Every structure is written in C-alpha cells, then in structure tokens.
Model the fold of this input.
Amino acid sequence: MTIVPIPFNRAGLVGNEFKYISQALEFGHISGDGRFTIKCHELLEKELGVTKALLTTSCTHALEMAALLLDLQPGDEVIVPSFTFVSTVNAFVLRGARPVFCDIRADTLNLDEQKIERLITSRTKAIIAVHYAGVGCDMDSILMLAKRHGIAVIEDNAHGLFGKFKGRYLGTFGCLATQSFHETKNFTCGEGGALLINDPSYVERAEIIREKGTNRNRFFRGQVDKYTWVDLGSSYLPSDVLAAFLFAQLECRDQIQSRRRHIWKYYREHLEEWASRNGVRLPFVPEYCEQPWHMFYMLMPSLKARQALIAHLKAREILSVFHYLPLHLSEMGRRLGGKENDCPVTECVSASVIRLPFYSELTEADQARVVSAIHEFVDA
Ligand SMILES: Cc1ncc(COP(=O)(O)O)c(C=O)c1O
Done:
C-alpha cells in the first residue's frame, strides 16, 4: 500500500479566490492599488483599528519600508531577537544599522523584555518585537522601555494576524507593524505582506516609499497635477491579482481560524500525555494572549532527539521542520560579531524545536497519523 505523504504546509483555497481574480481582470486594473488592494486595506484597517494598512509584496518588503521610514543611518543600532527569520534583521542591516541581538524567554520564545534595557545605547533607534507563533511579546514592558528611552517599536507580526495581547490586536502596538501573506501563513496570496501604520505621521512618506519614491498616490488623488521623484523608495506594491486572491482568504478569516484552532487543540490534547512522559515541552500561551493558531511546535529534550524525531516522521512520509537557526551564529551574524553563548536560550531552543504539519486543510485522519507516529517514537 502506498502511503500518501503529509506535507508540512499546503496552501488551501477557501472559495472565492478565482472568482475575484476574474473580477480583477474584468475591472482592467491588475497592477497595484486596484479595487481588491483597496478592499484588503479597508478590511485590515477596520478589523484591526490601525490608521493605515498598505499591502506589500512580502513581509520582508514591509520590514524594509519600516527601516526606510525610521531614517536609519549607518551606525544606528536596532535591538532584535536572534531567534527569528532573516528578514527581521536584514531589512535594517540593509540601511546600515547594526543589529544588537537580544535573547528570548524560555517560555514564549519571544524577546526577553528583562534583557532589553542593558542593550540600549545612545545609538539605539528601535526594538523589533517578533510575536513568535503569533503569541504576543510583553508589549506593556517593551513599550514602556521604548518610551523611556525615546526609541521606536516595530512589530514583526508575520505569524500573528488577528492574535491579541491583553485584548488588543497584535500589530497595533508599535508605530509600525508588518504582516506576511506567504504561503505558509494563515491567510495567503503566495507571496505578500502588509505594512500597518499606527503613527499617522508615517503615512504620507510610506505611500511615497511604496511607489518607487514618487508622489504618485497624491497624483491619483488629484492633490498634485503631475507626479515626480520625491524620496527614496522602491516597488513594494503587489498586483491586484494577488490582492484579489488574498481578499478571498481574509473574507473567510473566521472559517480559517476556527479550522486552525481545531487542529492546534487536537495536537495539544493528543500529545500532552506523551510530551510530559518524554520530557517534551508543548507551546506555552500566557492567559493574557489570544493566539491566532499559526503553528504547533514542540521543544524536544535534545538536538539528537529532535533530529531523530524528524527522521522517524520522514520515514513515515510525514514532513516536520525546524527553525530558526540563531541569526547571531549565522555566517552573516558572525561577521557582525556574533559568537556562541551570546543568546543561550535561543541556542538551546533552536536545537530542540520541531514544527508539526499545520495547514487549514489538514484532515483529522492525517493528524491522527502524525500523532500516532509520534506516540511510536521512543528515542525522546
Ligand atoms: C518572523 C518573520 N518575519 C518575516 C518573515 C518574512 O516574510 P515574507 O516571506 O512574507 O517576506 C517571516 C517568514 O516566514 C517570518 O517568520
């Protein structure tokens, strides 16, 4: 009997994606800022209560826009987790900033707010808060610290759309926040992202940066009679075809989230007992955080056990993955001065974390297969 592989991720369709793409084509405007882009902006602004949402071609590009908006100069410093995706840091290094790596908390795997202040210097311009797995960083402490030192807070909310910290949506705390609509995310258009703007003073310049450094948006609104090059920028706006796909997904957010909630809870319920018997840690979500059911990870007792479990699952045609490798120990991180033991919790978590297959269309039968394969694993 052939065993059908269970992938780690598979982007699913929720209903109106093709219909809206056809409509975008019929409207005859498939470049950026067409009708569906505007619909996505309005939905995000209304639902989250942010001043402005701007779709971008990726979360990476939204982060690059944030770095441009902060006017970072060579030698400026940004405090970043090492346990994150490359773009969280690379976007700021592109502007000449120096990343100062901060360790994470062992429970939420988010920036350790107790370890930030000692890293602040007169050159510090921003703290980049990544809400790992969409579980909120301690935004009370981070915002208080940033305010005291006059530095900006940017939220990298790639995982956390519709997650909440103390009843308030993630992405609404920093002066700027970024979202990802990459195919691995809860809501997707293949590749995509958004910049959320909470400080209105950034809106006009953000529109310019997103439109190749021109004031084209003002021209379209009839505020100037021709558009011209006014600032630095790039092409950060996605095609309306992608926005049409994304709008279909965002419209069905309750359906998607409820399905993912079910998947997450199934893993938790069926793995809890096995995990406690084998010294494995399941995700921790503080009671004041509402998570958006983005991923299910486990922390294995050792690197050896983690690698053995990945191989054990792979032999059963189940794909699990690990991430992130500590950025301060990457080739680039080391060139910037990173060395072993700079961020001990990050180093330990990175060696033990494993992520299980997680996507909206994962069936209960397939999940049962993943769970029973894990129960058979004896090496932990
Ligand atoms: C925390 C974090 N930030 C940024 C990104 C980059 O997102 P994108 O692929 O949309 O550029 C990712 C990608 O998964 C991520 O995990």
